[in-house]
Amino acid sequence: MSERHGLGTRTRNKVRVTALLASTVALAAVLSACSSSGSTPSAGGSPNGDKPETSDITVTFGTNTASTAPLWLAADEGIFAKHGLNVKVVEATSTVGATAVVGGGSQFFLGEAASAFAAVAQGRPIQIIGMLQDFNNQKFYVRPEITDPSQLKGKSIAISANGDSTDLSVRSALEHFGLSASDVTLLATGGSSNRIASLISGKVAGTVLSEPTATKAGQQGMKLLYDMTVQPFPSGGITISKDFGDKNPNTVLAFMESIEEGLKFLTDPANKDECLKVIAKYQATKVDDPAVLAGYNQYSGSVLAKDPYPNQQAGDNMVNAFKSLDPKLYGSLSTAKVYNPKFGDELRSSGFLQNLWGSALTASPSASASS
């Protein structure tokens, strides 16, 4: 298949990953200038009983949707400080954020899992230690004049970038429709704001969108053709470098515990007003923005995993998608090479998750799918 259909060649993918790694140098300079959460670590260290090996850490996140709210709340509500961590929170593109953990520009990346899978395929020593979203978070929207998937043939579909989660999700959707990437033209137009603009203007016939942008598409008269949120797929992961995890296991556990407590804060209805304020702050909008409430309603429910143990089925689905993208480049990729379940095992065996969630833990998609 030709490049205009979005199929990256082995060489082009290598160049793209190399460029992303180079971008981490610029990111490191940005990180040093960014503000921290403003919390002072408590002297007692992490509630897991072991003091973090290092307290000052930087976390990058790849999306400003409410799926990142557990991180924002952990920072703004003093949860990280409770666990002995002083955390700097920085937004970065998913591809740059994931590879930044290799060079030490950040210690954790919270966001799109696809970039971590791609980096591991290139031999980068990073690993996913937990999943906050082990189901696809995309919805396939089309122009209102599209009444049947077959009408997509010969038309353009917007993705964010070649080989990222939007690309993989579009390919999965096309397969669901009985089509393939060769039936359409995949256009890399950038982030969600660019993709929805291309859809509304008619530049493309369809695209995949996550909340809150998906809601905006519907409000603009675009048509939901396929809700992909029931598909096991690693949408949001916690990525670290192997070296950092080996040397700082207590820090990693303290971080994961903090994220889970941030999620618990998000899911408590009593905290709704505070959650809306924090979400609006990080999305640089007003609390009464309908998108803020839509994001809160979606992610304060059961979408995010109460048990962050990496989901095997979701990982296998992503590996298969990568192999269909480029069999040579991703032929040796496996879920086992990307996932490190050690910390998920520790959260389970220590009783932390059970104590935090109680009976609600059994309702977690991740808990049932990964056991």
Residue stretches low in confidence (pLDDT < 50, at least 5 long) are 1-47, 367-371
Major β-sheet, in short?
5 strands, mixed
CATH superfamily of the largest domain: Periplasmic binding protein-like II
Task: Quote the distance from N terminus to C terminus.
Answer: 39 Å
Helicity range of the residues?
40-55%
The average pLDDT score comes to 85
Number of extended strands? 10
CATH names the topology of the largest domain as: D-Maltodextrin-Binding Protein, domain 2
Tell me the name of the CATH class of the largest domain.
Alpha Beta
The helix/strand order is HEHHEHEHEEEHEHEHEEHHHHHHHHHH
* Strand residue content: 15-25%
Strand order of the largest sheet: 2-1-3-10-4
Count of the separate structural domains: 2
How would you sum up the global shape? globular
SS class: alpha/beta
Q: Nearest-angstrom radius of gyration?
A: 20 Å
User: Under the CATH scheme, which architecture of the largest domain would be assigned?
Assistant: 3-Layer(aba) Sandwich
- Counted by DSSP, the helix tally is 18
